[in-house]
TrEMBL record:
TM region(s), chain numbering: 25-45, 51-68, 89-106, 156-178, 199-223, 229-249
Pfam families reported in the protein's UniProt record: FA_desaturase
EC numbers: 1.14.19.-
An annotated Gene Ontology molecular function: oxidoreductase activity, acting on paired donors, with oxidation of a pair of donors resulting in the reduction of molecular oxygen to two molecules of water
Organism: Achromobacter kerstersii
GO biological process terms on file: lipid biosynthetic process
Family annotation (InterPro entries): FA_desaturase_dom (IPR005804), Fatty_acid_desaturase (IPR012171)
Name of the molecule in the record: NADPH-dependent stearoyl-CoA 9-desaturase
Keyword list, A-Z: Membrane, Oxidoreductase, Transmembrane, Transmembrane helix
Record flagged with keyword Endoplasmic reticulum: no
Source taxon at top rank: Bacteria
Domain named Fatty acid desaturase: residues: 50-319
GO CC annotations on file: membrane
Amino acid sequence: MPANSDFARLRNTLMAAGFSERTPWAIFGEWLVFVGLTIAGVAALATSDAWWVRLLAFAAIIMGSMGITTNAHTASHHAISKRRWVNDFFLYFGYPFFSQVSANYWRQKHLVIHHPHPNIVGVDNDANLAPVFALNQSELHRVRGLHRWWYAHQGYFLPLMLVGNAFGVVFQSWRYLLRRLADPAKRTRAHWADLSVLMLHWVVWVGVPCLFFTLEAVLMFTLLRYAAMSYAAFALFAPAHYPAAAGLYDRSTLNGNFLMLQTATTINFRTGPVGRLLCGGVEYQIEHHLFPSISPRHYRAISPIVKRFCDEHGYPYRTEGWFEAMWHSFVTFWRPKVVHAALPEPEPRRSQR
């Protein structure tokens, strides 16, 4: 970024205030809560026959899984610690070991593609769900016949189709990793490490439980956990970029104003103390997209600073309630968004001109 750009000025303000400091022990404490919650849920599920205990136990497992997932997301940005091995531990624990998602796939999908190009049609895969779903008007009008009918009615089927969300990510991550391993020019030790941890997932989550329970029961638990996490992942990540307020843009806008690109395509959502714990900072998506390496424990403190800067210099800064943002995410499947050919121009307050 140019030294005199709005983004550079905002970044320098936050760095001068000390927000570059990591908070590893706080995040480690949260991670212990999530792991403990998951273990307690698994233990209760395995030892109780009461339906209500099992229901609460499964809810505890999903809440723990949400926290571990967002913790791994933070680690992928090296925002937990300045020590690479610390971040790698939490990343590999949360994704390949806990969720059966390749860490290298996540880095490519999220860090390399999504963050520099949020909601850029034709670049950001998170904004491209075709041919299954259409998120923009161009995709809707490009097809005919039964495919057009499906897109016109996709909102009806979204709640049912979401059950496969986590399974699709697992499949894509395995395909990505196996292709890298098959190519001598691309594979590295990190890919082999990824594969090893993915296999460890099967040993711990399937092999060991089969010593105490039937294979059918273990696989049913695994399928139910993945299905529930499909909805949890939508709740965590969709509200940031799917609502109509988060615009879709043509790839020609990539050389434009970085601060505008991030704020025009992203919105925050509000939540309470428990939600903030589970979300691990993803509720402050604007701050996260602008400063992904800053500890999410700082986001609540820097949010008023970022909002004030955006208001004064003419950049959008939108916040919705969590359930409101999820609802608006669903609405997009009924009313796909328009793809804009240019980013908005900043509109500073008159006193700033």
